[in-house]
Amino acid sequence: MWIEETERTEFSIGELAREFDITPRAIRFYEAEGLIAPRRDGQRRIYTPRDRTRLKLTLRGKRLGLTLSEIRELIDMYEPGRDARPQLERFLAVLESHKASLLQQRADIEAQLSEIQTFEKRVRKQIKRG
User: Fold this and answer.
1) How far apart are CA 78 and CA 71, in angstroms?
2) Which of 64, 60, 57 is nearest to 96 (CA)?
3) Most CB atoms within 10 A, among 22, 46, 55, 60?
4) With the C-alpha atoms ordered 34, 35, 39, 40, is the resulting torsion angle positive or negative?
């Protein structure tokens, strides 16, 4: 399953920042984007295991190159006890789309490198001829 649970019932912003090696500012950004929703105790943010899991999944999605809107959509589809198939099918579709985009980017880069190599050879020949 894409979702994991933890035994702790609450976390501070500093604890999550240290655990995931990110800044508290990044966590506040994800909060502003609606990916996590800690409760407040005065100025203090209190994060639940659900927030921690959503943050973990957000960071995992970012490493995969997903957009925040894709990540939010996938996370929001999850509901404990319900059929995970729709979420997994959507996740697969997002991954396939992102993979196709990356493969196209790689092909474009390879074509550019080949063209650069061709021009480098031409320029070197011209330099040798004087």
Assistant:
1) 11
2) 64
3) 55
4) negative
DSSP 81: T
Phi, psi of 123 (to 5 degrees): -65, -40
Identify which of 52, 89, 54 has the alpha carbon closest to the alpha carbon of residue 71. 54
In whole angstroms, what is the distance from residue 67 CA to residue 59 CA?
A: 11
Q: Mapping DSSP to helix (H, G, I), strand (E, B) and coil, where does residue 84 land?
A: coil
User: Which tens digits make up the pLDDT trace of 7-64?
Assistant: 778 999 999 999 999 999 999 999 999 999 999 999 899 999 999 999 999 999 999 9
Evaluate whether 35 touches 72 at the Cβ level (below 8 Å).
Answer: yes
Measured CA angle at 70 (ends 64, 72), to 5 deg: 110
Kindly list the structural domains of the chain, giving each domain's residue range(s) and its CATH number in brackets, ordered by start: 13-129 (1.10.1660.10)
